[in-house]
Amino acid sequence: MNISRAKSGASRSVNDPTAKGKGPPASGEAATISRTEAVQDGLRQAIIEQRLQPGAKLPEDAIGDAFGTSRTIAREALGRLAVEGLVELKPNRGAFVANPTLDEGRDVFVVRRGLERIVTECLAGRLKPGEIAVLRDHVARELAVSGHNEVESIRLAGEFHLLLARLTGNQVLVRYVTEVVSRCSLILAMYGRPHSSDCGVSEHGEIVDALIAGNAGRACELMDHHLAAVASRALLQEKAERDIRDVLAPYAARIRGLGA
Amino acid sequence: MNISRAKSGASRSVNDPTAKGKGPPASGEAATISRTEAVQDGLRQAIIEQRLQPGAKLPEDAIGDAFGTSRTIAREALGRLAVEGLVELKPNRGAFVANPTLDEGRDVFVVRRGLERIVTECLAGRLKPGEIAVLRDHVARELAVSGHNEVESIRLAGEFHLLLARLTGNQVLVRYVTEVVSRCSLILAMYGRPHSSDCGVSEHGEIVDALIAGNAGRACELMDHHLAAVASRALLQEKAERDIRDVLAPYAARIRGLGA
DNA sequence: TTGCTTCTGATATCGCATGCACTTGATGCA
DNA sequence: TGCATCAAGTGCATGCGATATCAGAAGCAA
């Protein structure tokens, strides 16, 4: 009844052409495909924020219900998230929140460092005054919430990197950086230390300075160190025992001890 | 009748788990989702080989018919190709083969150079004997067809870069490189000179040599020059007048001349 | 009357929901 | 422990309403 047709208010409101940020009919990836994208974005957010735990099952029915759409839309969104690497599709079994291994995490960070290096090279010395203002403002906001709003802090930190990517004007780069930042968020949530998973704000500021100065070499170096630091904070072995066998190993040992 | 159900021989044969190249059930992007992927691959190939001209309409019905599936599958394949950038989706209008502008082409090449730089850094000095043999063999095959089989030559050239990416073992990298190589193929076909759109084979050989020698710096330099050369050959203005307005401009001028 | 613009109906195709068959994993039973 | 039965949920095709484009008709100006 509530899904009788596109009259469901929630999904309709989403469908209205709100954020059409792109240039008019110019570049490739045209206007959003509405509902699928809405569900995709919602799920992505939920996964990144760990509202959906890694490994959690994502039944098409349940997602359709939750978003007020049919399984068709849910299914398509899941397919795209699978391409992004945030969801794992098991044939005939369904979709699950990705549960990346530590090695996969390392791979993602390797690619991210490479991509952000391109961003840095594209931007060094080419920032316009207005863009500089936006960046400075962003860093200031990061500084403001730093220390007393963990969630927002992490969100802004990711946003900083996306902002840089967008400033290149290179849509391909934007897409890839968006993807790896998402995946890194998930990986950080899984393996990072609870309270150090955000970027160092001061490092962001330094990077902006180097970009403005037009010192490409230094900017790249700073960015790379910055990401290396994030990665090393993220990819700690300590929380890497998500694998059930590792988690259960000590218990199993205890039991074996009893038996012996 | 022929689409009564999964009895259609063509699509079934495709569905059988043939190429499951990936490691068993290990990493993220699990087993292929069969039919959708088959259609996606078929369309991708057709686009890259220019059997489907840039800008050509891709109706769901027609694609479904062609592949012996329903619109559902065709639709999903088109959606994924849109994410890849090979297809453009216009809301309520349908799908079209991407028609990238020269600027978009440049963007893709920028990202490709960055990605392949990562590949090179990952590989330098770490190739195992078996892998070296595979690479040498591939270059030899490129040399063999070079000059008298344009199509195969281009295919092998792209394959060389994919091969390198795969050797890194980094699945994220593999996916991104695969995508940009596809898009570069399309761009080369659109804007490149007819007979120089393939990679220089000798350059491939040199890159392999540098990788084996473990000279990361030189390998990166070679790779970057190589791709810069490909890009410069590709992104010529001369064929950039695909935009109808540009193509017709001289004719319009003539008419205006008559009128005046 | 001729040519141009605008309106309206027809058609093709999309967006989405839903139904049916089939696979998979679970449960009960020998 | 091994096997048959069953339920849950995916995989896919298809139907229905919606939307955009196009052809032709009507209206209007020259």
UniProtKB/TrEMBL annotation, chains A, B:
<dbReference type="GO" id="GO:0003700">
    <property type="term" value="F:DNA-binding transcription factor activity"/>
</dbReference>
<dbReference type="InterPro" id="IPR036390">
    <property type="entry name" value="WH_DNA-bd_sf"/>
</dbReference>
<feature type="compositionally biased region" description="Polar residues">
    <location>
        <begin position="1"/>
        <end position="16"/>
    </location>
</feature>
<dbReference type="InterPro" id="IPR011711">
    <property type="entry name" value="GntR_C"/>
</dbReference>
<feature type="domain" description="HTH gntR-type">
    <location>
        <begin position="33"/>
        <end position="100"/>
    </location>
</feature>
<keyword id="KW-0805">Transcription regulation</keyword>
<feature type="region of interest" description="Disordered">
    <location>
        <begin position="1"/>
        <end position="31"/>
    </location>
</feature>
<dbReference type="Pfam" id="PF00392">
    <property type="entry name" value="GntR"/>
</dbReference>
<dbReference type="InterPro" id="IPR008920">
    <property type="entry name" value="TF_FadR/GntR_C"/>
</dbReference>
<dbReference type="InterPro" id="IPR000524">
    <property type="entry name" value="Tscrpt_reg_HTH_GntR"/>
</dbReference>
<protein>
    <submittedName>
        <fullName>DNA-binding GntR family transcriptional regulator</fullName>
    </submittedName>
</protein>
<keyword id="KW-0804">Transcription</keyword>
<keyword id="KW-0238">DNA-binding</keyword>
<dbReference type="Pfam" id="PF07729">
    <property type="entry name" value="FCD"/>
</dbReference>
<dbReference type="GO" id="GO:0003677">
    <property type="term" value="F:DNA binding"/>
</dbReference>
<dbReference type="InterPro" id="IPR036388">
    <property type="entry name" value="WH-like_DNA-bd_sf"/>
</dbReference>
